Amino acid sequence: MQFLTSPTEKKTLEISDLLDPQLLGEEVCVTGAIHTIRDMGTVAFVILRKREGLLQCVYEESAADFPIKELKEADTVKAYGTLAASEKAPGGIEIHLKRVTVLSRPAAPLPIPIAKAKMNISLETSLDLRPVSLRNIRERARFRIQEGIVRGFRDYLTEQGFTEIHTPKIGAKGAEGGANIFKLDYFHHPAVLAQSPQFYKQMMVGVFDRVFETAPVFRAEKHNTKRHLNEYTSLDFEMGYIDGFEDVMAMETGVLGRVMEILKRDYGRELSLLSITLPDVTRIPYVRFDEAKRLVSEKYNRPIRNPYDLEPEEEALIGRYFQEECGSDFVFVTHYPSKKRPFYAMDDPTDSTYTLSFDCLYKGMEITTGGQRIHDYNMLLEKIERRGMTTEGMEHYLMAFKYGLPPHGGLGIGLERFTMKLVGDDNVRRTTLFPRDMSRLEP
């Protein structure tokens, strides 16, 4: 009888392993996909694509035991050779090939030039060919950056005593209300796809005090813009025993600080490849909703058209204002009008037309919505009644309040939109692995 314990140490090396100076001059073994081949006759450069980046291999006819014509782009291989230093190679190292074992071969030529720094293909073509287009190093780098954002979010909140939870995405009722809900038949019962984990987050505050989740949410909004998706990843947290919604904003500031710290420390290759300068998040200004509208109206001579919400152009101007006045790419806009916020948002006790809520704008675009929630059972029922809503389908949610919840608040960050602004893209689909919008269900 045989047993498995843990992964056995592989004899193949990764790029980070090869950077050990003691390996120079030694024979090494690596695996990877052939990204491109530059054949110059008796010498050729074979570039391997590995999980950490590109690795240059040098083929010399006199030293290798195979003809270069045996290798094709997109072959996956195991390569053996001598490690050498090279100032011109990526990472300052290269492998002088001796032999290669082909592990697999493509059945057809690549449909797009993934080895080019910029593929110069349309967004639609890139999305149609997503399993291949993502092999481009720049395309791939966006999602390494996105990984770093999630790592920072998770690491910081875990340190702050939050418990990670996983809530259902099929439910009986939407958390946000309205018509933007995907409805489905669930074993002959009406059901919906979750607009957010809001109800569950609040319920779990009564269990763990502080909770967070990273998961998909669904919005049946008939938008066809560069900033909207019908399925996106939301980074959510909810925290109990707060003194005010400012505690929630302060926690997000800490999250953003950790994100930038991790990106700077562990994602230097990707930051350099995409020419990203990380923003300063040590101090983030905040401003009331009505005051923000007034400031940009006066400075940029733009009339206030909608007193209850921010138009995209206003968000952009608010971002511009606080970059010019405070040198900050981020700004918290607080005290949104009650009529534009969900029923569970806590109204401002000094003026119930506004709420103790906020949005976080980054480079002139909303990436976060959050605030303090109503925690009193009777107050919540009164607001539901004032809005002409029914409590049908919310019995379990209301149970948490009936049996006591502490003052609490939380937020949700749109991961793809945050990534888009951080890497400098102009369309959220570029920072979504497999986008879902009004016209796209595949791949």
UniProtKB/TrEMBL annotation:
It catalyses: tRNA(Asx) + L-aspartate + ATP = L-aspartyl-tRNA(Asx) + AMP + diphosphate. L-aspartate binds at residues 176, 219, 369, 373. ATP binds at residues 219-221, 227-229, 366, 414-417. Transmembrane segments: none annotated. The keyword Methyltransferase does not apply. GO terms for cellular component: aminoacyl-tRNA synthetase multienzyme complex; cytosol. The record marks 90 as: Important for tRNA non-discrimination. PROSITE patterns: AA_TRNA_LIGASE_II. GO terms for biological process: aspartyl-tRNA aminoacylation. Its EC number is 6.1.1.23. Keywords: Aminoacyl-tRNA synthetase, ATP-binding, Cytoplasm, Ligase, Nucleotide-binding, Protein biosynthesis. Residues 143-435 form the Aminoacyl-transfer RNA synthetases class-II family profile domain. It holds the Pfam family tRNA-synt_2. Residues 198-201 are annotated as: Aspartate. One of its GO terms (molecular function) is aspartate-tRNA ligase activity. Gene3D superfamilies: Bira Bifunctional Protein, Domain 2, Nucleic acid-binding proteins. InterPro entries: Aa-tRNA-synt_II, aa-tRNA-synth_II, aa-tRNA-synth_II/BPL/LPL, Asp-tRNA_synthase_2, Asp/Asn-tRNA-synth_IIb, NA-bd_OB-fold, NA-bd_OB_tRNA. It is an enzyme of class 6 (ligase). It is found in: Cytoplasm. Aspartyl-tRNA synthetase with relaxed tRNA specificity since it is able to aspartylate not only its cognate tRNA(Asp) but also tRNA(Asn). Reaction proceeds in two steps: L-aspartate is first activated by ATP to form Asp-AMP and then transferred to the acceptor end of tRNA(Asp/Asn). Homodimer. Belongs to the class-II aminoacyl-tRNA synthetase family. Type 2 subfamily. HAMAP family: Asp_tRNA_synth_type2. This is Aspartate--tRNA(Asp/Asn) ligase. It comes from Candidatus Eisenbergiella merdipullorum.
